[in-house]
Structures are given as structure tokens and as C-alpha cells.
Design goal:
alpha/beta, Rossmann fold, 2 domains, 5-stranded parallel β-sheet, 12 helices, 49% helix, elongated
Amino acid sequence: MIKNVIFDLGGVIVDFNPEKVITERFCEKDARFILGNIFFSREWAEIDRGTLTPAAAFEKYRDALGDETYGRMLGIVENWGDYMPPFEDTYNLIKRIKESGTKVYLLSNVPPYIRKLMKTVPALALMDGIVASADIKMLKPEKEIYEYTLRKFGLEAEECVFIDDTKINADAASQCGITGFWFKDHDIEALETALRNNGVNI
């Protein structure tokens, strides 16, 4: 029986859409460079892990972008949480899950701006516990971060569902005994059906 639902953040609770944000704010040439070199890069992952700052990670691109464009890019990356609006449908679902008596948690690859999001994303106020990668120097899909989450909150893997918009992260949860759900294309109806099929009373 499922007693706990664990959510990812970007793409699940808030909208993570670098292409939209960057193409609206930079010329085509600069946007292409930023999207190709900054997001989903090895350095981006280490920022999420909490081992690099954006300034240290991307200083090497200053000359290629020029001081003015680099400064604007860095300002956006350092405050990326400001560019991830919350999904209302996910918030409503989380609220219903909580009201059903099922506990909800967050497990996310996210740098320290999670602290600011705690004040601006309503769904985060509903969480029974939060694991942010930068706080513990671990990343999904490493098995250690799932095991850490279970230990931290005293959860049994077989009593948990983990929801992520990235398939490899959902699959990694399954390999740890958690029911992993790939939240593909933000299909909220498919997610609700999967939760009901796993005994969540929503």
C-alpha cells in the first residue's frame, strides 16, 4: 500500500523551460550558444550537486558571449528559481493527496535557490519533508540519494511512489524498490490514474 508520494520539482511542480526563457531574452545566436553550453551540461549538474557556483562554472564562456550578454545570462542562471512558475494542476493534486491522509515529499536536483522557492511555490509548503541535492552533495539518478531520502524520513520503499519528468530518474527509483512514475509531457490525468491504481485515495 502506498503511504507516501515523493515529487520532483522542475517539470513536475514548477515549469522548467530553459528554451522558452532564454529565446525570449537573447538573440538567436546567443540563445543557441547558451542553451547548447549551459543547460543540462556537466557544470549544471555540479551546480545542482552544490559543488560549483554558476559564476565558477560558466566564467569560461564570458569571452564567447561578451561581458554584457554573459552578465545577463549569469544573472538569470543564479536566480533560475524566478523563471520557474508553479503548475496549478500539480498543486491541486498535491493538496488532494495531503487531504487524503497520504504524506508528500520533495526529492529534487536543485541548487540553493530552493530556499527562495519555499516562499513562492505553494506546493512546497505542503511537503512533509524536502531533500534538495545541493544540501547533501548527491544527485538523481544516483541510488544513494533515494536511499538517503528513505532513511531521512523513515520511509519504506514499497510504500512510496516517486514522480519525475525524467525517465532515468523514475527508473532509478524503481531500482531502489520505490514505485517510479515517469511524468511524461505533464500528463496529470495519467499521473492521477497511476496514483489511484496504487491505492492513493484521490
